[in-house]
Amino acid sequence: MSQLIEVRDIAKSYRQRQGSQTVKALGGVSFSVQRGEVLGLLGPNGAGKTTTIKTICGLIVPDSGTVTIDGFDVQRERLKALRSISAVLEGNRNLYWRLTVRENLEYFAGNRGASRRQVRAQIEELLRQFRLADKGNELVNHLSRGMQQKLAIAVALLAGSEIILLDEPTLGLDVEAGYEVRQLLRDIANNQGRTLIISSHDMPVVQDLCQRVVIISGGRVVADDQVSNLLKLFATRAYQVTLGAPLSSAQLSRLQARFTASIDHPAKTVVRVNLEHGEDIYELIEILRLERTPVEAIDRTTINFEQVFLQVINGAKPLEETHAL
Q: DSSP state, 139?
């Protein structure tokens, strides 16, 4: 795969509405996207993710740094750069609600210079593929949220751009609609060779669709790696310790001060703890020895990408080497 997008050291600050202070949204964000890749662009609210997305789309001018798309600088060669990208924005802002489904497709194709005659067959195929054929003459504001989202993705595909940026593609959808949108995105990624950038708080979507993630927190990139690598790395840290007695307050305080841990109290006390280094097991045992708490089992636990994401933004260092027990 060749490099298609390069974000190089972009920084952006905003002046507060009241007062003369500035707030730094981005503090030097850099990453690249390869042609044909499915990338997750993630971050908590206020992390700088939305500013990054808008900068890639040419909607925000950074204070410093550059974004290039297919070799064209987004600020200096805007039209050439943005020819390669379509965005599906959160909140269904891509569509005209007082036009029908078919009229929306025709209108946005016309914005890209295509006539109705040129795209007629492609529109009919998209309506069939997205299961919207019987809604072609329906006003968009009469559609369900799931159908609106599918139409927004179809509009992006009709543009023919190589890159599709999707901001929260499953937000607000019910389970069935969310699953259908996920299946459509998987088909686009696997069978059409498009490059997808998915920004989402829906971690199962990220784990299911994305090959790689860039996680932004505090205006900086805190992780940039393959999803599979991050899952493997954090899986080596996650343990479940089953105890034969509850922990004392002193043990609880020391445990929570030293480790990222959660504690359940069903019939038996179960401690779920992350051990970042091999020698951490000895410190955990020392905490349990304070009250001679009986240990019934120590097991590695299965970890999902939501847990990985939370650990990364809460200060874990996923790119550091760790030592397996």
A: B
How does strand 85-88 pair with strand 3-15? unpaired
In a domain, 324, yes or no: no
Nearest Cα to Cα of residue 214 among 298, 130, 313: 313
In this prediction, residue 324 has a pLDDT band, given cuts at 50, 70 and 90, of very low
Q: What is the DSSP string of 81-116?
A: HHTTEEEE-TTSTTS-TTSBHHHHHHHHHHHTT--H
Predicted local distance difference test score (pLDDT) of residue 325:
34
Domain boundary among 178, 200, 226: 226
What pLDDT score does 92 carry? 56
Tell me how far the alpha carbon of residue 110 is from its chain's centroid: 31
Nearest to 280 by CA among 265, 264, 258: 258
Residues 6+ apart with CB under 8 A from 313: 43, 44, 47, 215, 217, 222
**89 φ, ψ to 5°?**
-85, 150
The residue among 226, 250, 265 that closes a domain is: 226
274: tokens are 């992350």
The answer to whether the pTM exceeds 0.85 is no
Neighbours of 72 (CB within 10 A): 17
The verdict on 155 and 41 lying in the same domain is yes
80 with 213, same domain: the answer is: yes
